[in-house]
Amino acid sequence: MDLYREIILDHYKHPRNFGVLETPDVKASEYNATCGDRISIELCVYASTRKRIKDARFSGDGCAISVASASMLMEKIIGMGVKDIIALTANDIIDMLGTELTPSRTKCALLPLEVLQKAVLSLQS
Amino acid sequence: MRLVRKDFPILNRHIDGKPLIYLDSTATSLKPQMVLDAMDGYYASYSANVFRGIYKISERATSCYESARERIARFIGAKKKDEIIFTRGTDESISLLYYSWALPHVKADDTIVTTIMEHHSNFVPWQQLTKSKGVTLKIWTTDANGELNLKDLDSLITRKTKLLALTAVSNVLGTVNPIQKIIGIVKKLNPACLVLVDAAQAAPHMAIDVQAWGADFIAFSSHKMLGPTGFGVLWGRRELLEDMPVFNFGGDMIKEVHRDSTVFADLPHKFEAGTPHIAGAIGLGAAVDYLSGLGMDAVREHEIEITSYALGKLSEIRGLSIVGPREAICRGGVIAFTMGGLHPHDIAQILDEDNICIRVGFHCAQPLHEYLSIGATARASFYIYTQKTDIDALVLGLHRVKKLLG
Lengths: 125, 406
Hints:
The complex is a heterodimer of chains A (125) and B (406). Chain A has 125 residues and is of the alpha+beta class. Helix content of chain A is 46%, strand content 20%. Chain A has a three-stranded antiparallel beta sheet with strand order 1-2-3, covered by helices on one side. In chain A, strand 2 and strand 3 form a beta hairpin. The mean pLDDT of chain A is 92. Chain B has 406 residues and is an alpha/beta fold. The radius of gyration of chain B is 22 Å and the shape is globular. At the A-B interface, helix 1 of A face helix 11 of B.
């Protein structure tokens, strides 16, 4: 098993889009009770339609898997439509990471998606 | 101590061609063949229900079930076997006390004392009592070394204190609390204050004598001391248990039932509703026989030797920080640690590539982690089958973690 493959370690050590936005349209965060990890995500959408992500940042503490997952996810969703984000599934995240995950680590990998979808849904409502 | 590894079939296993390096005995111990044989023996040759079966295999099941109770009583120095209540584990033993002792006995004006190093199972019930009954909960905190200062008892224990609930050994810090001394002081300050000892981490590792301790209740689990999961013990002083109302209703816990009334069974059966975990009792009986055969002093001695070796080796790793007392003699066979900013889940995952099994997280002691202002920790723990080469493998693995993630 090559869970800690080069690209994951790279995103973990040098997370992209890490931090906060100056004027986010929406924020969300989620807590993983088993390890105390917390991931927060902030999003800006294009003002005209509010249907496409203009910019995104994540912050928080996490393991290599959750940090890499958040970092890769931020890259993936900038410019993406809100509808497509809601349609993202666990399999999309596993494909994105390109690695095998044990059941306990799947939770770590999916935490950023959970936060992201929570943010997007509250944006709509 | 004699060589025990050959008694544990799981230690012969290889996963992906590599041996198993099991360093998670504080979560649950491995099981020796003798325990497996005892339980198989019940299922294969006399798997009848206990009590009232007027036929040979039921009588044998009853006698083996009750004989286990007798040997377990002797193992912890209980006066009578009737003081041994079989439960599903430490958590249920303490919950039984919550429902059958605390709810009927405590009042809003009372105080309960516990410590910051408790497992959630000996913390949450008393915290909930503040909400359900309005009692005051005082939490005894540790010093920087992870140890309790006995002088604190002077202010913690008052005439209003109904119960001190504390663990004999911390499952994170490893701290071995001086139970006998503590109980001596408590009873001098307030003879009416009862003391419950969570012995889940003590019973597997050191000689226990509830009479010498002077305890009122103790709770422990079978699966941490070579026995099966889903089984445990509550021991209590007979007069206290007799005075407590029943816990669960059902078969085996009654003497007579009429349209309008029920007469409950005597101790210990009044607390054991329904067909019990018969194989569980037989398995734990075999486990205490096995431990008694080794001698609990030898078990403790081995644990101190391994812990001392591990403390030395682990403290040589730069950036690794150990929680709890520095000396092996003051601690059980458990070492929790952090490694700079490295996440415990990543540490454990990388170690698992070499079949090195450790535990990560809060270890059911989140208030302690918050008190210490640390996030989740990684934890390696040891038992009678742990050898120095297991520690060496852990140290090598941790260097690999640092190289990969650092």
